[in-house]
Amino acid sequence: MNRLFGSVRSRATLGATLVVAVALFVTGAAVLQALRSNLTAEAGTQAEGTARAVASELAARTPYDQLSGLGSKSGPVQVVDEDGNLVAASEDLQRISGTVTDRVEPRPSSPSPSASASPSQSAPAREDDEDEDDEDEDEDDEDDDEDTETPRSQSTPEDEESEPSLAPGETGRQTTFSSGAATMDDDTADYRFAAVDVQTHDRGLLTVSAGAPLAAEHSAVRTALTVMLIGFPLLAALVAGMTWVVTGRALRPVAGIREEMAAITASEDLKRRVPEPGTHDEIARLARTTNETLAALETSVERQRRFVADASHELRSPIASLRTQLEVAAAHPELLDLDGAVEDTVRLQHLAADLLLLARLDAGERPVDARVDLAALAREEAAGRTGVTVDAESAEVAGSRGQLARVLGNLLDNGRRHARETVSVSVRREGDRAVLAVADDGDGVAEADRERIFERFVRLDAARSRDDGGAGLGLAIARDVAVRHGGTLTVGAAPSGGALFELRLPLA
Question: 291, 350, 401, 478 - which has most CB atoms within 10 Å?
Fold first, then answer.
């Protein structure tokens, strides 16, 4: 299991499938909720229309048994008086819930005082009755509001306050909605009920409750849910399959790169390169970067091999010479060349010191962060050397005094080795840089060789350099130290015709 989901392809497929599954679940729930709300609202509108039609007939003094909304083909309808008595109901209504009353058999109500009294005699009483009816109606409305729900989408501003008293023949503007069930002619179904009030001329305040079936809403929701339960898994499976295929094709070059890198590791052949796809995506850039890294590694390894070979060759000569002199001295002490032995020992010591410094530089050793005055350093290194002149202004740089002294010493040794008479040293400032220049009056360096002389163990005149004690490491060390100090070392033509070496370092 860990191996299966440890691959990028598996994790990408699983992640995409989970995201799509969550999105489908949220979208499906929102669609079902919206569908249910819209269909319920339509049923409520239909029920409200039926209730208001019956209320209009009651306001027009239509008898209960002649109300058109109470037929067997209509939905469940109830008419309740202000005392809570069921005075009229739909035919074949057997059971009901969710309305003002669950009664299904109409019960005759007591005659309204306003119907038996003459207008002149009952006027004061009617006013009192209307006040009492208003109070009862307010109380009934409050009770109904507590037991029923009024969707916000179909409510009116008067929902938050009690509806004012209605005049005879007037139908209330407020509609109260609720959900319930009813059984008609042995058929039980869910309904959306709407209740409205109407003030009649002869029967007082009545409440009409009418219902519209929710069968369409239930059927539509069930159909949509079935489609989602079948379609959503198929869609998620399709997304998973497409993601698996696309990810596999996208990662195929990565497998090729990995296999080639494994082969390079096994064969240790740094000349090989990984395949680069013809695309311009991240994998192609990865392949190019990998090949660049392999090229740099090949160059570094080859450089190390040449360094070891050259170092072995350079060390072999003084060691062999010293051994020969010691063997001769052991057999014939009178033939010992003491000066030659000392010279070979010193040469061997200098070569070992150069190799050690190069190894430290290759290891990335950071120079000591100290202030060094190049003018003072130039005067110190030039002291005791014949034919060396110094013209320097103060210029402080940050770095290792010992390494910078080694650079200047190597440049002066190189200048004395090739100069005819004099070597000049100058130090000046140029912007934010300090420039140390060493020039000689020799033959100079050919333009084609001006970069080659900074390579390790390179001598343009090998025989003379070896006789003079040079191993071809001085200029290579000087440039490496300059680079480690954030500077540069270049060679050009001196005004006198010789070589001009310029060391540029940032000012402290």
Answer: 478
Domain containing residue 319: CATH number = 1.10.287.130
**Residue numbers of the domain that contains 498:** 367-506
- H or E element at residue 427: strand 423-430
343: left (phi over 0), alpha (psi -120 to 50) or beta: alpha
Which tokens go with 54?
């019956």
Last residue in a domain, options 365, 384, 401: 365
**How far apart are the two ends of the chain, measured CA to CA in Å?**
60
Contact 185, 72 (CB under 8 A): yes
Per-residue pLDDT averaged across 185-196, rounded?
91
Q: What is the pLDDT averaged over residues 411-430?
A: 90
Structure tokens at 276: 């680069």
Q: Tell me how many degrees the CA angle 5-9-11 measures, rounded to the nearest 5.
A: 45
Of the candidates 106, 95, 69, 72, the residue with the CA atom closest to the CA atom of residue 191: 95
- Indicate the range of 109-113, 136-140, 400-404, 496-500 predicted with least confidence: 136-140
User: How many whole angstroms from its chain centre is CA 220?
Assistant: 41
In this predicted model, what pLDDT tens digit does every residue of 105-146 receive, in sequence order? 887 655 444 433 333 333 333 334 444 444 444 444 444 443
Structural domain includes residue 254: no
